[in-house]
Amino acid sequence: MQQVIVIGGGVVGLTSAWWLLEAGFGVTVVERAPQVASGASYGNGGQLSYRYVSPLADAGVPLKAIAWLFQEHGPLRFKPELDLRQWRWLASFLGQCTTAANRRTTAKLLELGELSRTGMQQLEAIVSPDDFAWRDAGKLVVYRSPAVFEQAAGKATAGAIWSGDECAAREPALGAARSQLAGGIYNRGEAVADCHAFCVALAERVRAHPRFAGFVQAEVTRIAAAGGRVAGLDTSIGTIGGDAFVLAAGIESRNLARHAGIALPLYPLKGYSLTAPIRPGDTAPGISVTDFERKVLYARIGDKLRVAAMVDMVGENLALNPKRIGSLTRQVRETMPHAADYDRISAWAGLRPATPNSAPLIGATALSNLWLNVGHGPLGFTFAAGTARVLADLMRGKAPPFALDMLAPGR
């Protein structure tokens, strides 16, 4: 039985471990934190948005980004770095900012989204939805600008088109913002859940699998390569060997791959989230809501409201920016003033490992026994089950369920 070492204990690494175990591999998971899902999987937006997968790169985005930089409460912040990886990523991102590129990538991500939906349904047979507050809430994208709403409604190929009045009537949490809403697009079948709780529950199922060799808490410092393959992992507790290795360590994958002579087109897009308890009598959203122009996501997860927003391009800096937290809190209080107890907010920041075109990298590398499952950006929870299934198929020599095209590492 081939022994696979999975580097990373977040949602992507854990789903990869499960599908590899089910495919007949022996698996060990190496995670540097004491607990699984302590990084980007911990406090993310909690939305499983299988249809809302349009890449960040699109025609017109560069001009919008310039405008956002000058907005006090804008969704984007940029800090230039003395790091060529930032500038290479930006150059590649700008090259993807065309209508044609956006359509091609969106079509592929929709395929991956549908595969991920069926993958999550399979996982629900082993991880109870009650364990991670899963709800089939549906997703409502609301628009403030009549022109932007009209354009979005004209392009919509699925979903119900609601007026501003209908948005507030069907989702009472939006009542205070009614006068600012031009309309919205609602899709059934989109879900919300607690990603961290899902990872904790899945880790227990992984731990109990007969082919699982165990979790190892250690920091991988180097992927040692020799003769065109990985010889082992240098870690904080010594060398770890195996037959094959899967890199699923979020943004840290970029540094580890570089040591092995592989340049990954990843950049950390820093995002923030707020979590506030919902009290009896609060008007929390029952539907998952995205405020399109402000790029703010709202999701009721169990008895808490999760709000996620913003993209800070500031390198690998995890510090909470008080101004950004304050700005987000003000926007939340304005949009949904009665949705939760905002006096008891907890704030979080995470680094989302993004590729320039928002498509993850899945598959083989130049090293014969090193595989990738990285680059999911803000859709790690959404795509984790699908990319794990694709990875397991590839590693056992089985054709993937659809052409990988831009998902392949050598694209």
TrEMBL record:
Organism: Massilia jejuensis
Family: Belongs to the DadA oxidoreductase family.
Superkingdom of origin organism: Bacteria
Coiled-coil segments: none
Name of protein: D-amino acid dehydrogenase
Presence of the UniProt keyword Oxidoreductase in the record: yes
EC code(s) of this entry: 1.4.99.-
EC category name: oxidoreductase
InterPro entries for this protein: FAD-dep_OxRdtase, FAD/NAD-bd_sf
Molecular function terms, GO-annotated: oxidoreductase activity
Keywords carried by this UniProt record: Oxidoreductase
Chain ranges of the FAD dependent oxidoreductase domain: 4-394
UniProt key word Oxidoreductase: yes
